[in-house]
Amino acid sequence: MGIQAPRGTRDVLPAESYRWQYLEACMRKAAASAGYRETRTPVFEHTELFLRGVGDTTDIVQKEMYTFLDKGDRSITLKPEGTAGAARCFLEHNLYAEPLPCKMYYLNAPIFRYENPQSGRLREHHQFGLECFGAQEPTADAELILLAYRLLSELGMRNLSVNINSIGCPKCRPVYHSRLKEYLAGKIGCMCDDCKGRFERNPLRVLDCKQKKCQELTKDAPSMLDLLCDECRDHFQELQACLKDAGIPYTVDPRIVRGLDYYTKTVFEMITATKDGNLTVCAGGRYDHLLQQIGGPDLPAVGFGMGIERVLMLAESESIQIPEPAWYDVFVTYMGTHRADAFRLTQLLRQEGLKADMDHCGRSLKAQFKYANKTKAPVTAVIGDEEAAGGTVKLKNMNTGEERSAAWEAAAAAVREMTEIKAKE
Ligand code: ATP
Ligand code: MG
């Protein structure tokens, strides 16, 4: 075999793309239901954006970014997450001058991270993300959590846990930082190498470590929740009241800190259990100072990202049925010399709004039928000598065996009648 796709990437094949399309339709519907409108931003941005936005002490920036110099010697980075690009777009186009909040979503945004490829972990994955700029109230946080939860449960996902936490704000977090540092100081020797570095640069990150031994060490670490300032505490309480009121089962998990530096107050994750362990499908939170950090006004914001490959993976492991659309409504077959007729009839049927096709590979009539069967076309049309002479076509329902003869102009209507496909709108 010649050249293969790079490690950690995945092709979406024609036979499976309907699964993506189904999910995309559900996602767009969910976003639109709360007034989020689509935004599309470039796949790459100036590296500076992520250094300032995501934070240079995070794993993403330290180890995982695809960064390169372009031919003009500019440092460019393929998007390692969606929020910073959306925030840059919001600022660059002065969207803050319009009535707020500004609600936007992105769908199928390719995200690049140099990670160790393993189950559920790719080097290129895709996200559905929602961002709400200019809203400080906890109802905005609750709305996002609800939207993601309902989307996933309506898709049929069970065993979904919603974990939330508050990581405070620049007023109350420094106190927590020093408490946590005191707690961790005696344990540095037993931590993984990454956490030794995190301890110096950003001790909160140690709580996020995926290594068992570090998780064990931080089991009894002090909790940010005990040190929240009044504003952050009220915010977190109102968020919880909204979730309770909406009947969303959630757990407060003081260990969630998230892998990005820009978060303040609310952070959340939605996790499902799989045979390979827990998998995070959706994660997000509030980032009230990101806009200012990247050079804009100090406006609050909140958002989430959902990994599309992970949702599809879970859909598969939970045997969620995703309806597969028919490839064709009708397949046109022809005898010997009647290829031009078959071509014309196929075009006519398409113009009438049906999904139609014919043989393009020089097959015999028998082989055309065999092929039509494989495509699962519910109706096969046949043009033989008799039909060609009379301007008609023979239609056969492949499921019931019912046969009809129809004039070309009436063929589309007949196919619809035979299969109960709705008329063109
Ligand atoms: P994890 O804890 O699994 O590393 P994360 O905290 O890095 O996730 P985010 O940066 O918040 O994740 O990204 C949002 C969502 O994108 C995740 O919840 C997950 O569904 C998906 N995601 C993140 N990294 C990957 C990856 N390497 N491959 C596939 N999906 C991913
Ligand atoms: Mg990660």
List descriptors.
425 residues; alpha+beta; BirA Bifunctional Protein, domain 2; Rossmann fold; 3 domains; 5-stranded mixed β-sheet; 15 helices; 16 strands; binds adenosine-5'-triphosphate; binds magnesium ion
Quick structural overview:
The chain has 425 residues and is of the alpha+beta class. Helices cover 37% and strands 22% of the residues. It folds into three domains: 17-170 and 235-317, BirA Bifunctional Protein, domain 2 (2-Layer Sandwich), CATH 3.30.930.10; 173-227, no CATH class; 330-419, 3-Layer(aba) Sandwich (Rossmann fold), CATH 3.40.50.
Question: Can you tell me about this structure?
Answer:
With 425 residues, the chain is α+β, with helices and mostly antiparallel strands. It has 3 domains: 17-170 and 235-317, 2-Layer Sandwich (BirA Bifunctional Protein, domain 2); 173-227, no CATH class; 330-419, 3-Layer(aba) Sandwich (Rossmann fold). The chain is built from 15 helices and 16 strands. Strands 1-5-6-11-10-9-7-8 form an 8-stranded mixed β-sheet, with helices on both faces. A hairpin with a 2-residue loop joins strand 9 and strand 10. Helix 5 (138-154) runs parallel beside helix 9. The two termini are 47 Å apart. The model has no long low-confidence stretch (mean pLDDT 94). Bound molecules: adenosine-5'-triphosphate and magnesium ion. Adenosine-5'-triphosphate binds next to strand 6, strand 10, strand 11 and helix 11. Residues 81, 113, 115, 120-122, 125, 127, 259, 280-283, 305-307, 309-310 line the site of adenosine-5'-triphosphate.
